[in-house]
Design goal:
The protein has 107 residues and is an all-alpha fold. It has a domain at 3-71: Orthogonal Bundle (434 Repressor (Amino-terminal Domain)), CATH 1.10.260.40. It is 46% helix and 0% strand. It contains five helices and no strands.
């Protein structure tokens, strides 16, 4: 079993236990979330569920605030508001200019 499958199974098991201790039946969760009872049952027994249905289940169990932890909003970081760094440019050598030169003074 790869890491992906392990993570999915862990989420599946946690959601099922959370529902049981909430306490809420699959039927009640289906009514509250709008996800079919059959989909909930299949998910809890190891089948996949689409992301939108998973989020509906989280909302019905009042867990949707935890989604912010998964992908934090970068605007919440102070560094987001700092000016973006300017591209550095290399300073070239200054060209020598003859400032005392005037036309007619070549001699």
């Amino acid at each position: 079993m790869n890491n992906y499958d392990t993570n999915i199974n862990e989420l599946r098991e946690k959601l099922k236990l959370y529902r049981i201790y909430y306490p809420m039946t699959q039927k009640e969760l289906a009514e509250k979330s709008g996800v079919s009872e059959r989909s909930i049952s299949r998910f809890e027994n190891g089948e996949d569920i689409n992301l939108s249905n998973f989020i509906k289940l989280l909302k019905a169990l009042e867990l949707d605030e935890n989604l912010k932890i998964l992908i934090p909003d970068q605007r919440d970081r102070p560094s987001y508001y700092l000016e973006k760094p300017h591209e550095r440019s290399r300073v070239g050598k200054k060209k020598k200019t003859v400032s005392d030169f005037k036309w007619g003074d070549e001699v």
